[in-house]
Amino acid sequence: MAIKPRDMSKMIDHTLLSPVAKVEDIRDLCQEAYDYEFASVCVNPIFVPLAAKLLANTSVKVTTVVGFPLGAATTEVKAYEIRNAIKNGAQEIDMVMNIGAFKSGAYDLVEADIRAVVDATRTAGITSDIIVKVILETCYLNEEEIIQACHLAKNAGADFVKTSTGFGPAGATIEAVSLMRKTVGREIGVKAAGGIRNYQDALEMINAGANRIGTSSGVAIVTGEGMSEEES
């Protein structure tokens, strides 16, 4: 299925999670997100108040990360991060699954961790309309584990499953995205992130089943970089 570049704008979380991102970089990110009408900007928690201020009264939401990038924070810390982020203006949360617990087979703990984060968004006292995406970090998982992790996230009430942090050894793959979509069905979203740098990359992920794209290359995607002559 071919989708025009600009039609992808509402599927993009325009992302800047670099440890050396500066205030002016976040300002530029938010301006681009506004200009191209992206779904959201995705920034580190310290920049949520600034992004929320810059994007107030626009259609662009503010996404931030929790338990990032390892997923190894305790559940209580993740829940606090959630409440603090929402207080500061976050509208969407990308949390990292407890990967170590998952690989240890502690599935009940992993599901409870995700559920606690989902519950924290409901009890933050500001809005109940907060989207929670669970980052599986699929580069560390085999097919059976991806399926299991998707079930845990869905059972815990997550709104999306997401492939990657972008800090692991590999990012999104067509195979992982397709498997995630097949597993969760159409009831929740699938976000592909990590290594998606142009229109063709994004199109492949969307055709595999993603309905949200996390990328620092949002402008390149919606301006058609990487399009073939036939597509253009």
Q: Care to give the gist of this entry?
A:
The chain is α/β, with parallel strands linked by helices and 232 residues long.
Give an overview of the whole structure.
By secondary structure, this protein is α/β, with parallel strands linked by helices. The protein has a single domain, classed as TIM Barrel. The chain is 41% helix and 16% strand. It contains 9 helices and 8 strands. Strands 1-2-3-4-5-6-7-8 form an 8-stranded parallel beta barrel, surrounded by 7 helices. α3 runs parallel beside α5 and α5 packs parallel to α6. The longest helix is centred in the middle third of the chain and has 16 residues. The chain is globular. The two termini are 14 Å apart. The mean pLDDT is 95.
Summarize model confidence as the mean pLDDT.
95
Output the strand order for the largest sheet: 1-2-3-4-5-6-7-8
Question: How many individual domains?
Answer: 1
Shape: globular
Rg is: 17 Å
Query: Unreliable segments (pLDDT under 50, ≥5 consecutive)?
Result: none
End-to-end separation in angstroms reads 14 Å
CATH class term: Alpha Beta
**CATH topology (level 3) name:** TIM Barrel
